[in-house]
Amino acid sequence: MSEFKVHHRDGEGVSVIDLKGYLDAHTAPDLENAFQKLIDEKKFNIVVNCKDLSYISSAGLGVFMAYIEDVRKNQGDIKLTNMSAKVYNVFDLLGFPILYEIYKDEQEAVGKFAARK
Amino acid sequence: MERMAKTLTKTIQSRTDNLLEVREFVMHAARRFGFSEEESSKIVLAVDEACTNVIKHAYQNAPNRSIQIDITHDRETFQVSVIDEGKSFNPNSAKMPDLKQHLSTFRRGGLGVYLMRTLMDKVEYNYSPGKRNEVRLIKYLTPSNSAARG
Asked: Which helix (H) or strand (E) holds A72?
């Protein structure tokens, strides 16, 4: 049984990463690879759907910090959606809501990118 | 002060694929001790951060060193000790970061220590470099964080 999965979808000029399971020091490299691949492909409008993410530690949060600057430099953004209260609390403890846009649902985040065009 | 009773111990090898097992071990013990699920999750995350620090910093990703996790308690105090024999770091030199500045400059790492201190009631360090380093993560059971509340 896999403890963490990253799945990526493209559509409407926005790439969506679906996270599933546990994002910790062991699985953080999988998310790094997913971000790196999108950046290499010059896809900078990124939504991360956390609906099935059940756990995150600072190693996982660090991945978001590592890529946000690159993405924004290229007029893109990383927007987060569908977090459980438990996962949101960890983001909140570290002050992430100040720097990242967090939405209740994926469509709302995708719409924000569309509205910018 | 009365010595706390040793209840549970687990030793893992210093690899990140063992973190899941540590989290399950701590979650089970914290729930059994009487903490709510929410409070137990905080303890679990703090212990994950301590173990991750040991793997990355004390052992510098060497995969087969050992990490011992001891859980002790008295009536209201729940303590998880994370013990290693690697390189120690001086926790007092790791100041509480100015989070807004930390995040705004997108600096990575260093958040684990902040999380441990925020999630637990008390964090103590006991270091003998190369011999035995110990981080003690302490949480007190209160009416507001116990599973029996309400």
From this structure: helix A58-73
The complex's ipTM works out to 0.91
- Cα–Cα distance for residue pair B73/A13, rounded to 1 Å: 54
Chain A: give the shortest CA distance to residue B14, in Å. Answer: 11
Q: Which residue of A has its CA nearest to B44?
A: A57
**A101-103/A77-81 β-pairing:** parallel
Of B100, B108, B111, the CB nearest to A98: B100
Judging contacts by C-beta atoms under 8 Å, the chain A residues touching residue B38 are 86
Do the beta carbons of residue B133 and residue B85 sit within 8 Å?
A: yes
Tell me, yes or no, if A1 comes closer than 8 A to chain B by beta carbon. no
How much of chain A is in helix, strand and coil states, percent to nearest 5? Answer: 45, 30, 20
Are A101 and A73 spatial neighbours (Cβ–Cβ below 8 Å)? no
Which of B14, B26, B52, B96 to mutate: most A Cβ within 10 Å?
Answer: B52
Each residue's pLDDT, cut to its tens digit, for chain B (150 residues) gives: 456 787 899 999 999 999 999 999 999 999 999 999 999 999 999 999 999 999 998 999 999 999 999 999 999 999 999 999 998 766 655 555 666 565 555 455 578 888 999 999 999 999 887 789 999 999 999 999 998 864
Name the pTM for this structure. Answer: 0.91
